[in-house]
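Hello again, I could really use a second opinion on something today. My current little project is about how a certain protein chain folds up. You're getting the sequence in one-letter code plus the fold written as C-alpha coordinates. Here's the protein in full, and shout if anything looks odd to you:
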Amino acid sequence: MTLPLGLGVALPVFRSANLAFLAACALAALLLPTGARSQSAPGVTADKITVGQTIAMSGPFGDIARELLKGSQAYFNVLNRTGGIHGRQVELVSKDDGYITARALDNAKQFIDSQSVFCLFSNFGTPTNEAILPLAESSGTPLFASFTGALSLRSKDLKSTMNIRASYADEAEHLVKQLHTLGVRKIAVVYQNNTLGQEILQGVSDSLGKRGIKPVWTGAIEPDSSNAEAMAAKAMGAKPEVLILGIAGKSTIEVIKAVKGANAGIQLYALSILATPANLRALGKLGRGVVVSQVVPLPTSPTMSLAREYRAAMTEAGHTDFTHLSFEGYINGRILAEGLKRAGRNLTRPGFISALHTLQRYDAGGLMVSFGRGAASSSSFVELTMIDSDGKLIK
Protein backbone atom coordinates (compact mmCIF):
# COMPACT_ATOMS: atom_id res chain seq x y z
CA MET A 1 0.00 0.00 0.00
CA THR A 2 1.27 3.53 -0.79
CA LEU A 3 0.29 7.09 0.05
CA PRO A 4 0.30 9.77 -2.71
CA LEU A 5 2.49 12.81 -2.03
CA GLY A 6 0.86 15.03 -4.66
CA LEU A 7 4.04 15.24 -6.78
CA GLY A 8 3.79 11.94 -8.57
CA VAL A 9 5.83 10.22 -5.83
CA ALA A 10 4.47 7.36 -3.77
CA LEU A 11 5.82 6.41 -0.34
CA PRO A 12 5.42 2.80 0.83
CA VAL A 13 3.51 2.27 4.06
CA PHE A 14 5.20 -0.25 6.42
CA ARG A 15 3.09 -2.35 8.66
CA SER A 16 4.02 -2.28 12.32
CA ALA A 17 5.28 -5.86 12.10
CA ASN A 18 7.79 -4.87 9.43
CA LEU A 19 9.04 -1.96 11.52
CA ALA A 20 9.45 -4.20 14.54
CA PHE A 21 11.47 -6.71 12.46
CA LEU A 22 13.83 -4.03 11.13
CA ALA A 23 14.35 -2.59 14.59
CA ALA A 24 15.20 -6.02 15.97
CA CYS A 25 17.78 -6.58 13.22
CA ALA A 26 19.43 -3.22 13.91
CA LEU A 27 19.58 -3.95 17.65
CA ALA A 28 21.10 -7.39 17.03
CA ALA A 29 23.83 -5.89 14.86
CA LEU A 30 24.71 -3.38 17.55
CA LEU A 31 24.94 -6.10 20.19
CA LEU A 32 27.41 -8.19 18.19
CA PRO A 33 31.07 -8.04 19.36
CA THR A 34 33.11 -5.54 17.39
CA GLY A 35 35.26 -8.27 15.83
CA ALA A 36 32.18 -10.15 14.63
CA ARG A 37 30.66 -7.11 12.91
CA SER A 38 33.85 -6.28 10.98
CA GLN A 39 37.51 -7.04 11.33
CA SER A 40 39.57 -4.23 12.82
CA ALA A 41 42.49 -5.26 10.63
CA PRO A 42 43.67 -8.19 8.50
CA GLY A 43 44.29 -11.25 10.65
CA VAL A 44 42.16 -9.98 13.54
CA THR A 45 38.86 -11.56 14.61
CA ALA A 46 36.79 -11.45 17.77
CA ASP A 47 38.90 -14.13 19.41
CA LYS A 48 42.21 -14.34 17.53
CA ILE A 49 45.18 -12.34 16.22
CA THR A 50 47.13 -14.17 13.52
CA VAL A 51 50.73 -13.24 12.76
CA GLY A 52 52.72 -14.66 9.86
CA GLN A 53 56.34 -15.71 9.58
CA THR A 54 58.57 -16.90 6.76
CA ILE A 55 61.56 -18.67 8.23
CA ALA A 56 64.33 -21.06 7.17
CA MET A 57 63.29 -24.17 9.09
CA SER A 58 65.14 -26.19 6.45
CA GLY A 59 68.29 -25.35 4.54
CA PRO A 60 71.73 -24.19 5.69
CA PHE A 61 70.50 -22.14 8.64
CA GLY A 62 67.69 -24.38 9.85
CA ASP A 63 69.25 -24.82 13.28
CA ILE A 64 69.23 -21.04 13.86
CA ALA A 65 65.66 -20.62 12.67
CA ARG A 66 64.31 -23.53 14.68
CA GLU A 67 65.82 -22.15 17.88
CA LEU A 68 64.32 -18.73 17.21
CA LEU A 69 60.89 -20.25 16.56
CA LYS A 70 61.12 -22.42 19.67
CA GLY A 71 61.47 -19.36 21.92
CA SER A 72 58.69 -17.39 20.24
CA GLN A 73 56.25 -20.28 20.47
CA ALA A 74 57.10 -20.83 24.13
CA TYR A 75 56.15 -17.21 24.82
CA PHE A 76 52.88 -17.38 22.87
CA ASN A 77 51.92 -20.59 24.68
CA VAL A 78 52.15 -18.84 28.03
CA LEU A 79 50.47 -15.69 26.71
CA ASN A 80 47.48 -17.61 25.37
CA ARG A 81 47.15 -19.76 28.48
CA THR A 82 46.93 -16.60 30.58
CA GLY A 83 44.26 -14.83 28.52
CA GLY A 84 46.00 -13.60 25.38
CA ILE A 85 45.61 -9.98 24.22
CA HIS A 86 42.32 -8.39 25.35
CA GLY A 87 40.72 -11.83 25.21
CA ARG A 88 42.19 -12.76 21.82
CA GLN A 89 44.58 -15.67 21.33
CA VAL A 90 47.73 -15.02 19.32
CA GLU A 91 48.39 -17.58 16.59
CA LEU A 92 51.79 -17.76 14.89
CA VAL A 93 51.66 -19.24 11.39
CA SER A 94 55.16 -20.16 10.16
CA LYS A 95 56.08 -21.07 6.59
CA ASP A 96 59.42 -22.63 5.68
CA ASP A 97 61.44 -20.83 3.00
CA GLY A 98 64.70 -22.80 3.24
CA TYR A 99 66.60 -19.47 3.18
CA ILE A 100 65.65 -19.14 -0.49
CA THR A 101 64.75 -15.54 -1.27
CA ALA A 102 62.12 -16.35 -3.92
CA ARG A 103 60.32 -18.71 -1.56
CA ALA A 104 60.41 -16.20 1.28
CA LEU A 105 58.97 -13.50 -0.96
CA ASP A 106 56.24 -15.86 -2.16
CA ASN A 107 55.36 -16.75 1.44
CA ALA A 108 55.09 -13.06 2.33
CA LYS A 109 52.94 -12.34 -0.74
CA GLN A 110 50.56 -15.13 0.22
CA PHE A 111 50.22 -13.76 3.75
CA ILE A 112 49.63 -10.20 2.56
CA ASP A 113 47.42 -10.90 -0.47
CA SER A 114 45.16 -13.22 1.51
CA GLN A 115 44.72 -10.60 4.26
CA SER A 116 45.18 -13.48 6.69
CA VAL A 117 47.80 -12.00 9.04
CA PHE A 118 48.02 -8.85 11.09
CA CYS A 119 51.79 -8.51 10.72
CA LEU A 120 54.93 -10.32 9.61
CA PHE A 121 56.87 -11.47 12.64
CA SER A 122 60.54 -12.48 13.04
CA ASN A 123 61.12 -13.26 9.38
CA PHE A 124 64.52 -14.87 8.99
CA GLY A 125 67.56 -13.62 7.09
CA THR A 126 69.04 -10.57 5.42
CA PRO A 127 68.47 -11.25 1.69
CA THR A 128 64.98 -12.60 2.38
CA ASN A 129 63.90 -9.62 4.44
CA GLU A 130 65.39 -7.17 1.94
CA ALA A 131 63.22 -8.75 -0.76
CA ILE A 132 60.09 -8.59 1.43
CA LEU A 133 60.64 -5.03 2.68
CA PRO A 134 59.13 -3.11 -0.30
CA LEU A 135 56.03 -5.30 -0.26
CA ALA A 136 55.50 -4.84 3.47
CA GLU A 137 56.01 -1.08 3.30
CA SER A 138 53.73 -0.56 0.29
CA SER A 139 50.92 -2.62 1.83
CA GLY A 140 51.28 -1.12 5.31
CA THR A 141 51.91 -4.55 6.80
CA PRO A 142 54.06 -4.26 9.94
CA LEU A 143 57.40 -6.04 9.48
CA PHE A 144 58.26 -6.70 13.11
CA ALA A 145 61.44 -8.00 14.75
CA SER A 146 63.06 -9.54 11.68
CA PHE A 147 66.05 -11.75 12.35
CA THR A 148 68.67 -9.61 10.64
CA GLY A 149 71.00 -6.85 11.69
CA ALA A 150 71.13 -5.31 8.21
CA LEU A 151 71.19 -1.52 8.01
CA SER A 152 69.04 -1.74 4.87
CA LEU A 153 66.09 -2.55 7.17
CA ARG A 154 66.89 0.28 9.58
CA SER A 155 66.28 3.43 7.54
CA LYS A 156 64.57 6.28 9.37
CA ASP A 157 62.24 6.63 6.36
CA LEU A 158 60.61 3.20 6.83
CA LYS A 159 57.10 3.43 8.27
CA SER A 160 55.96 -0.16 8.85
CA THR A 161 59.29 -1.78 9.76
CA MET A 162 60.14 -2.16 13.45
CA ASN A 163 63.34 -3.85 14.65
CA ILE A 164 64.45 -5.08 18.06
CA ARG A 165 67.93 -6.66 17.81
CA ALA A 166 71.03 -4.49 17.52
CA SER A 167 72.43 -4.17 14.00
CA TYR A 168 75.42 -6.00 12.56
CA ALA A 169 77.16 -2.63 12.55
CA ASP A 170 76.54 -2.40 16.32
CA GLU A 171 78.00 -5.87 16.82
CA ALA A 172 81.00 -5.08 14.62
CA GLU A 173 81.66 -1.84 16.50
CA HIS A 174 81.59 -3.67 19.82
CA LEU A 175 84.07 -6.29 18.59
CA VAL A 176 86.44 -3.76 17.01
CA LYS A 177 86.32 -1.48 20.05
CA GLN A 178 87.34 -4.41 22.26
CA LEU A 179 90.18 -5.38 19.93
CA HIS A 180 91.42 -1.81 19.67
CA THR A 181 91.43 -1.50 23.46
CA LEU A 182 93.54 -4.67 23.64
CA GLY A 183 96.04 -3.20 21.16
CA VAL A 184 95.17 -5.55 18.29
CA ARG A 185 95.82 -4.00 14.88
CA LYS A 186 96.29 -6.87 12.40
CA ILE A 187 92.72 -7.95 11.71
CA ALA A 188 91.40 -10.12 8.86
CA VAL A 189 87.76 -10.69 7.92
CA VAL A 190 86.14 -13.69 6.26
CA TYR A 191 82.53 -13.09 5.27
CA GLN A 192 79.57 -14.83 3.61
CA ASN A 193 79.27 -14.00 -0.09
CA ASN A 194 75.76 -12.52 0.16
CA THR A 195 74.15 -9.41 1.60
CA LEU A 196 74.52 -10.77 5.14
CA GLY A 197 78.28 -11.09 4.83
CA GLN A 198 78.66 -7.84 2.93
CA GLU A 199 76.81 -5.99 5.73
CA ILE A 200 79.17 -7.48 8.30
CA LEU A 201 82.27 -6.67 6.23
CA GLN A 202 81.08 -3.09 5.81
CA GLY A 203 80.42 -2.75 9.54
CA VAL A 204 83.86 -4.08 10.48
CA SER A 205 85.61 -1.96 7.83
CA ASP A 206 83.80 1.20 8.98
CA SER A 207 84.67 0.55 12.64
CA LEU A 208 88.31 -0.10 11.80
CA GLY A 209 88.41 2.96 9.54
CA LYS A 210 87.27 5.23 12.40
CA ARG A 211 90.42 4.10 14.18
CA GLY A 212 92.74 4.50 11.21
CA ILE A 213 93.05 0.76 10.55
CA LYS A 214 92.47 -1.33 7.43
CA PRO A 215 91.91 -5.11 7.39
CA VAL A 216 95.08 -7.01 6.49
CA TRP A 217 92.95 -9.39 4.40
CA THR A 218 89.31 -10.01 3.49
CA GLY A 219 87.80 -13.01 1.73
CA ALA A 220 84.33 -14.21 0.75
CA ILE A 221 82.96 -17.69 1.43
CA GLU A 222 80.18 -19.02 -0.78
CA PRO A 223 76.86 -19.74 1.00
CA ASP A 224 77.24 -23.46 0.16
CA SER A 225 80.66 -23.49 1.95
CA SER A 226 82.38 -24.89 -1.14
CA ASN A 227 85.46 -22.67 -0.71
CA ALA A 228 85.53 -22.46 3.09
CA GLU A 229 88.78 -24.40 3.58
CA ALA A 230 90.53 -22.49 0.81
CA MET A 231 89.51 -19.14 2.32
CA ALA A 232 90.67 -20.27 5.76
CA ALA A 233 94.08 -21.10 4.32
CA LYS A 234 94.31 -17.68 2.65
CA ALA A 235 93.31 -15.96 5.89
CA MET A 236 96.07 -17.77 7.79
CA GLY A 237 98.51 -16.82 5.05
CA ALA A 238 97.91 -13.14 5.85
CA LYS A 239 99.11 -13.86 9.43
CA PRO A 240 96.55 -11.70 11.27
CA GLU A 241 96.36 -11.50 15.04
CA VAL A 242 92.58 -11.84 14.86
CA LEU A 243 90.21 -13.29 12.27
CA ILE A 244 86.65 -11.95 12.40
CA LEU A 245 84.05 -14.42 11.14
CA GLY A 246 81.16 -12.78 9.29
CA ILE A 247 79.69 -16.15 8.38
CA ALA A 248 77.05 -18.59 9.56
CA GLY A 249 76.17 -22.27 9.29
CA LYS A 250 78.54 -24.96 8.03
CA SER A 251 81.13 -22.43 6.85
CA THR A 252 81.73 -21.35 10.43
CA ILE A 253 82.60 -24.86 11.55
CA GLU A 254 84.95 -25.51 8.64
CA VAL A 255 86.87 -22.25 9.07
CA ILE A 256 87.30 -22.69 12.83
CA LYS A 257 88.42 -26.29 12.44
CA ALA A 258 90.92 -25.31 9.76
CA VAL A 259 92.44 -22.45 11.78
CA LYS A 260 92.51 -24.32 15.10
CA GLY A 261 93.78 -27.49 13.44
CA ALA A 262 96.68 -25.60 11.90
CA ASN A 263 97.71 -24.19 15.28
CA ALA A 264 97.94 -20.80 13.60
CA GLY A 265 97.77 -18.87 16.87
CA ILE A 266 95.00 -16.66 15.53
CA GLN A 267 92.27 -15.47 17.87
CA LEU A 268 88.78 -15.91 16.41
CA TYR A 269 85.96 -13.40 16.88
CA ALA A 270 82.44 -13.90 15.54
CA LEU A 271 79.00 -12.29 15.50
CA SER A 272 75.89 -13.66 17.18
CA ILE A 273 74.84 -15.76 14.18
CA LEU A 274 77.67 -18.24 14.93
CA ALA A 275 76.49 -19.54 18.26
CA THR A 276 73.82 -22.07 17.35
CA PRO A 277 73.52 -25.22 19.47
CA ALA A 278 74.37 -27.32 16.41
CA ASN A 279 77.55 -25.31 15.74
CA LEU A 280 78.66 -25.53 19.35
CA ARG A 281 78.13 -29.31 19.38
CA ALA A 282 79.92 -29.76 16.06
CA LEU A 283 82.92 -27.72 17.17
CA GLY A 284 83.36 -29.49 20.48
CA LYS A 285 86.64 -28.55 22.15
CA LEU A 286 87.86 -26.78 18.99
CA GLY A 287 85.41 -23.99 19.79
CA ARG A 288 87.16 -23.18 23.04
CA GLY A 289 88.25 -19.55 23.25
CA VAL A 290 86.21 -18.26 20.30
CA VAL A 291 84.71 -14.88 21.22
CA VAL A 292 81.11 -14.29 20.13
CA SER A 293 79.10 -11.08 20.34
CA GLN A 294 75.49 -11.41 21.49
CA VAL A 295 72.45 -9.14 21.04
CA VAL A 296 70.45 -10.53 23.95
CA PRO A 297 71.54 -11.09 27.55
CA LEU A 298 72.74 -14.41 28.93
CA PRO A 299 69.66 -16.68 28.97
CA THR A 300 70.87 -18.49 32.09
CA SER A 301 71.20 -15.28 34.13
CA PRO A 302 69.96 -16.00 37.67
CA THR A 303 69.23 -12.33 38.43
CA MET A 304 67.44 -11.05 35.31
CA SER A 305 63.66 -11.44 35.62
CA LEU A 306 63.25 -11.64 31.84
CA ALA A 307 65.66 -14.60 31.70
CA ARG A 308 63.81 -16.33 34.55
CA GLU A 309 60.48 -15.88 32.73
CA TYR A 310 62.01 -17.27 29.55
CA ARG A 311 63.40 -20.37 31.28
CA ALA A 312 60.06 -21.05 32.96
CA ALA A 313 58.23 -20.78 29.61
CA MET A 314 60.76 -23.03 27.87
CA THR A 315 60.55 -25.60 30.66
CA GLU A 316 56.75 -25.57 30.46
CA ALA A 317 57.06 -26.24 26.72
CA GLY A 318 59.30 -29.24 27.41
CA HIS A 319 62.64 -27.68 26.40
CA THR A 320 65.76 -28.12 28.53
CA ASP A 321 68.31 -26.17 26.45
CA PHE A 322 68.44 -22.42 27.09
CA THR A 323 70.11 -20.55 24.20
CA HIS A 324 70.62 -16.96 23.13
CA LEU A 325 68.69 -17.68 19.93
CA SER A 326 65.56 -19.06 21.57
CA PHE A 327 65.79 -16.25 24.14
CA GLU A 328 65.75 -13.77 21.26
CA GLY A 329 62.62 -15.45 19.87
CA TYR A 330 60.99 -15.21 23.29
CA ILE A 331 61.89 -11.52 23.60
CA ASN A 332 60.48 -10.79 20.14
CA GLY A 333 57.17 -12.36 21.14
CA ARG A 334 57.06 -10.51 24.43
CA ILE A 335 57.64 -7.08 22.85
CA LEU A 336 55.10 -7.84 20.12
CA ALA A 337 52.53 -8.62 22.80
CA GLU A 338 53.28 -5.39 24.66
CA GLY A 339 52.64 -3.39 21.49
CA LEU A 340 49.40 -5.27 20.81
CA LYS A 341 48.16 -4.67 24.35
CA ARG A 342 48.91 -0.96 24.17
CA ALA A 343 47.12 -0.70 20.82
CA GLY A 344 43.86 -1.55 22.59
CA ARG A 345 40.86 -3.73 21.85
CA ASN A 346 40.08 -2.00 18.54
CA LEU A 347 43.29 -3.23 16.95
CA THR A 348 44.57 -1.61 13.75
CA ARG A 349 47.96 -1.63 12.10
CA PRO A 350 48.54 2.15 12.46
CA GLY A 351 47.38 1.89 16.07
CA PHE A 352 49.88 -0.89 16.72
CA ILE A 353 52.79 1.09 15.26
CA SER A 354 51.76 4.18 17.26
CA ALA A 355 51.57 2.04 20.40
CA LEU A 356 55.11 0.75 19.83
CA HIS A 357 56.31 4.35 19.68
CA THR A 358 55.14 4.76 23.29
CA LEU A 359 57.76 2.22 24.33
CA GLN A 360 60.55 4.58 25.36
CA ARG A 361 63.21 3.08 27.60
CA TYR A 362 60.74 0.32 28.29
CA ASP A 363 62.15 -2.20 30.75
CA ALA A 364 61.18 -5.69 29.59
CA GLY A 365 62.59 -7.27 32.72
CA GLY A 366 66.22 -6.27 32.37
CA LEU A 367 66.38 -5.41 28.66
CA MET A 368 65.65 -1.81 27.66
CA VAL A 369 63.93 -1.06 24.35
CA SER A 370 62.97 2.26 22.74
CA PHE A 371 61.02 2.62 19.50
CA GLY A 372 60.26 5.79 17.57
CA ARG A 373 63.45 6.32 15.54
CA GLY A 374 62.13 5.09 12.23
CA ALA A 375 63.15 1.48 11.76
CA ALA A 376 66.31 1.74 13.85
CA SER A 377 67.00 -1.03 16.35
CA SER A 378 64.94 -0.55 19.49
CA SER A 379 67.63 -2.39 21.47
CA SER A 380 71.29 -1.43 21.41
CA PHE A 381 72.33 -4.31 23.67
CA VAL A 382 75.59 -6.04 22.67
CA GLU A 383 77.94 -8.00 24.90
CA LEU A 384 80.80 -10.42 24.35
CA THR A 385 80.72 -14.08 25.32
CA MET A 386 83.28 -16.86 24.93
CA ILE A 387 82.96 -20.57 24.17
CA ASP A 388 84.37 -22.58 27.08
CA SER A 389 85.93 -26.07 27.04
CA ASP A 390 82.48 -27.65 27.43
CA GLY A 391 81.11 -25.87 24.37
CA LYS A 392 79.05 -23.46 26.49
CA LEU A 393 78.86 -19.70 26.17
CA ILE A 394 80.15 -17.78 29.17
CA LYS A 395 80.59 -14.07 29.93
User: Anything to note?
Assistant: The two ends are 87 Å apart (CA to CA). The first strand starts at residue 2 and ends at 4. Residues 62-81 form the longest helix (20 residues).
